[in-house]
Design goal:
The chain is of the alpha+beta class. The chain folds into 2 domains: about 55 residues; about 120 residues, Mannose-Binding Protein A, Chain A. It contains 7 helices and 8 strands. Strands 1, 2, 3, 4, 5, 6, 7 and 8 form an 8-stranded mixed β-sheet that branches. Strand 6 and strand 7 form a beta hairpin. The radius of gyration is 25 Å and the shape is elongated.
Length: about 240
């Protein structure tokens, strides 16, 4: 057989970057995209855990590996010839180990709820449905959070990257005083944040009093229009025990 046949598919060996892609987050950005040094957790492996501390991901990996080993032992024992008593004893031992594993997973620290995203000490919920600006505030309050108030440039870059493909409300408006923008916590919009408005915005065209993420920046929009929204809450610290 001609090994140089171009029609024959060739096996592809995974390089370090390929292996990294298999275990890292489904949403991947380089650290320079956020303006700081930060690495996403093992999101694909941890499933709905989202972006979690590496220590938690390693704990889960260890537990999963141990579980696989226990199941393999169970299968090996069940297929091996021998006394029924020995098999029952091994099965009981494995059952007890799995029970302890289940309890251990339940005690693992999660800084954010399962469907929230962790970033720099805060948890963020990215909605999958749309509401107007006022109803978005209510939706966040119902889960003990707040329509997102942006405090740092790093946080802005992080949120902008994750909302670049859809219109999303933030907790910023000039409803109290036209042209004077304030966050929901009462703090004014800093001059250093004015650069995030898209070109020509805010223009207050047609009573556009609420701010949204649009494309690569911010835009003022009518508050009664339905858009996605982001809730923000402080993460839960892990116990040192």
């Amino acid at each position: 057989m001609d090994m140089s046949d171009p029609k024959k598919p060739m096996a592809r060996h995974l390089g370090p970057l390929d292996e990294e892609e298999l275990i890292t987050s489904g949403i991947r950005h380089s650290p320079k995209d956020f303006g700081f040094q930060w690495t996403y957790g093992l999101r694909r492996f941890t499933g709905c855990l989202g972006q979690v501390p590496a220590s938690l991901a390693l704990q889960l990996f260890s537990l999963a590996l141990f579980t696989v080993l226990l199941v393999a032992i169970l299968v090996q024992v069940s297929e091996a010839p021998g006394s029924q008593g020995l098999e029952n004893s091994k099965q009981e031992e494995i059952y007890q180990e799995l029970t302890h594993l289940k309890a251990g997973v339940a005690r693992l620290c999660r800084p954010c709820p399962w469907d929230w995203t962790f970033f720099q000490g805060n948890c963020y919920f990215f909605s999958k449905t749309q509401r107007n600006w006022h109803d978005s505030i209510t939706a966040c309050q119902e889960v003990g959070a707040q329509l997102v108030v942006i405090k740092t440039a790093e946080e802005q870059n992080f949120l902008q990257l994750l909302t670049s493909n859809r219109l999303t409300w933030m907790g910023l408006s000039d409803l109290k005083h036209e042209g004077t923008w304030h966050w929901l916590d009462g703090s004014p919009l800093l001059l250093s944040f004015m650069k995030y408005w898209n070109k020509g915005e805010p223009n207050s065209s047609g009573e556009e009093d609420c701010a949204e993420f649009r494309s690569e920046g911010w835009n003022d929009s009518k508050c009664d229009w339905r858009k996605f929204w982001i809730c923000k809450n402080t993460s839960t610290p892990c116990s040192s025990d």
